[in-house]
Amino acid sequence: MNTQASAMAEHHIPAENVEEAQTLLQICDLKKRFSLSGDFLDQLRFKGGKLVRHQEHVHAINGVNLEIMRGEALCVVGESGCGKSTVARTVMGLITPSEGEIHYDGQRIDHLSSRQLLPYRKRMQMIFQNPYASLNPRMTIQQTLEEPLRLHHPTWNRQQIADKVEEVMGSVGIDPDWGKRFGHEFSGGQRQRIAIARALAVDPEFIVADEPISALDVSIQAQVLNLLMEAQHARNLTYLFITHDLAVVEHFGTRVAVMYLGTVCEIATTSTLFAKPRHPYTQALLSSIPRLEDDRPQHIRLKGEVPTPVNLPSGCVFHGRCPYANARCIQEIPPLKMQDDGTRVACHAVEEGRL
Amino acid sequence: MALLEVSQLDVRFGLRQGEVRALRDVSFTLERGERLGIVGESGAGKSVAAFSLLNLIARPGFIAGGSIAFEGQTLNTMSERGLRKIRGNRISMIFQDPMMTLNPVLSIGAQMVECLKAHRRISSKEARAIALDKLRQVQIPSPEKRLDQYPHELSGGMRQRIIIAIALLLDPDIIIADEPTTALDVTIQAEIMALLLDLCEQHNVGLILITHDLGVVSQVTQRMLVMYAGRVIEQGPTREIINDPQHPYTQGLINALPQMATPGERLNQIRGSMPSLSNLPSGCAFHPRCDFIKRADGQTRPACIEQVPGFVQAGNCQVACHMVAELLEDRRLKEESQ
């Protein structure tokens, strides 16, 4: 137990080593807009006697730059609508980006066709939030786990596939008897275990997990989180972990990227972020976690609510709610700037030393 | 006498497969102005407990036994007409999903006025003035404008503020809040909880807060109940339970939180999952998942498997656990012999 614990602790790459670690995935200036105005004909409007084309967009991601190192767990946190799930889906190629590039192990993958993407799909797998929706209700568990193997190993015979399924079932703690049953016969935690088994079946090196434990009860969350950490340890996996639960991030993440309204406002190693949050939004976010301790630190109250991503605010997207905003924040978009300890923060107040 | 006194509440659902007992032997009290938390995982019966307080359990569910006394009146045997005078008026409810609670085709003002006029003989103008005042209390920006808006025009956090304003409309004695912030983001959740806490303190309103979030319970409530498979397994002052839980399930629940473990190390999980109510284990419903059914000598404690544990007093808390009962008994014997 002790050796296992210390081996797990090693997974947290210390800050100074992050720079030397090998980049597995690189996201460059990613942007994604979703059209709200429908087809071409729907976009036509009469204005002042003229036919004009009117378009409206949701700006889900606006210029995200991230890199994920081999063997780390990069957590992306933020509130609903901040674009964190869009980032995950774009990385997996489920959504085509409007602008920007995604490089996987040195190769650009965002513009590939689904056939060209197939070899990458084997190396990167996804775990979804809702295990009730992500398992095909008409497939048995055995079929569910065989499907990715059939697709990615077309030359394997039946025995090879069956052996692999049995192995992966064992590694995530699924009873082999479950194979004949259907998804609806299982509880949420068990289904998520099956979804993890399906992701691990093709021996990927990179896993995108989009809120994998948010739909589960507390005691089950711990089981699934432990399973994900064991898998990372045993298979040297790299995670892109999307969540809104900061307590999970603190426990699980190597590094954290905080997102707000489609932009990354702070990236830091987990311990640095929790010890010393820089960005005013990160500070507010951390202060609002309900803690068990009695001596609650006064939580930082933000004015207003998250603006709509249809009409983005000018300058810093957070300026309308930020207690430190000044004229420059309203006009100029702050870039991510490297700090002394390797943290990167996008905030004029931090840069100017006002904060 | 306590403001609300629930004793031996027994709620069942008559299903085709047989009767499911959703609540058994649930007893608790709430004093005026007190804040009580009910904690448990999904399927523990916490929402059923909340709904049954106002006799809102729909068929095939029914209250099979026990009593709910509010200021001495028994709610569970009261006529529908009598209940209507209490629901929303003396005891109001806040539900998890604000969109489901608000009527989408009525403006906010119309819904608030409707609620006031159902319970009081006042003019629409007076009702509107009260509604406006309540919206101010929940710190909604430009409240006059909101009265004429429809629910879909407002954000989730704003809608939940409206729901709180409606819950406060008739100056109730008790608010029952069923997972009021689960659908909201953390920063909004913190705001709404702070607001609810302030208002309850200001107006001396009792709060029954139902949640799965131990953090929220520990910040807001004074006393708490922990539920498992339809029963209360531990109850007492919130601080004492959070700091020193006695029941193995409560201990497991608190220890399973990521903040209780060293980052990067294994979390202390509880094995297995909550049993289905239609197929409960014998004896203590938690025994198949419990690490303490074995005694120090390695022998399994037979009582855990055979007998449903009763409450024992541990400090200011009541705990339903054979292991705790045995520990306390041992301690008592030791003290007596000295």
Automatic annotation (TrEMBL), chain A:
Protein name, UniProt field: Dipeptide transport ATP-binding protein DppF (TC 3.A.1.5.2)
Task: Return the InterPro entries for the record.
Answer: AAA+_ATPase, ABC_transp_ATP-bind, ABC_transporter-like_ATP-bd, ABC_transporter-like_CS, Oligopep_ABC_C, P-loop_NTPase
Which GO terms of type biological process are on file?
peptide transport; transmembrane transport
What Pfam families does the annotation carry? Answer: ABC_tran, oligo_HPY
Q: What PANTHER family has UniProt attached to this entry?
A: D,D-DIPEPTIDE TRANSPORT ATP-BINDING PROTEIN DDPF-RELATED, TRANSPORT ATP-BINDING PROTEIN
The UniProt entry's sequence similarity note says: Belongs to the ABC transporter superfamily.
Among its keywords, does the record have Nucleotide-binding? yes
Query: The organism sits in which domain of life?
Result: Bacteria
Gene3D superfamilies in the cross-refs: P-loop containing nucleotide triphosphate hydrolases
Source lineage: Bacteria, Pseudomonadati, Pseudomonadota, Gammaproteobacteria, Oceanospirillales
Sequence ranges assigned to domain ABC transporter in this UniProt record: 46-286
Q: Extract one GO molecular function annotation from the record.
A: ATP binding
Name the UniProt key words of this record, in alphabetical order.
ATP-binding, Nucleotide-binding, Transport
UniProtKB/TrEMBL annotation, chain B:
Report domain ABC transporter positions: 6-254
> Its catalytic activity?
a dipeptide(out) + ATP + H2O = a dipeptide(in) + ADP + phosphate + H(+)
Keywords from UniProt, A to Z, are: ATP-binding, Cell membrane, Membrane, Nucleotide-binding, Transport
Q: Which SUPFAM superfamilies match?
A: P-loop containing nucleoside triphosphate hydrolases (SSF52540)
- According to its record, how does it sit in the membrane? Peripheral membrane protein
Question: What's a Pfam family this protein contains?
Answer: oligo_HPY
Q: Where in the cell is it found?
A: Cell inner membrane
Taxonomic superkingdom: Bacteria
Looking up PROSITE patterns in the UniProt record yields: ABC_TRANSPORTER_1, ABC_TRANSPORTER_2
Instruction: Give this protein's Gene Ontology molecular function annotations.
Output: ATP binding; ATP hydrolysis activity
For this protein, the Enzyme Commission number is 7.4.2.9
Q: Tell me the Gene Ontology biological-process terms attached to this UniProt entry.
A: peptide transport; transmembrane transport
GO CC, one annotated term: plasma membrane
List, alphabetically, the PANTHER family matched.
Answer: DIPEPTIDE TRANSPORT ATP-BINDING PROTEIN DPPD, OLIGOPEPTIDE TRANSPORT ATP-BINDING PROTEIN APPD
Family of this protein: Belongs to the ABC transporter superfamily.
Name assigned to this protein: ABC-type dipeptide transporter
Q: Taxonomic lineage per UniProt? A: Bacteria, Pseudomonadati, Pseudomonadota, Gammaproteobacteria, Oceanospirillales
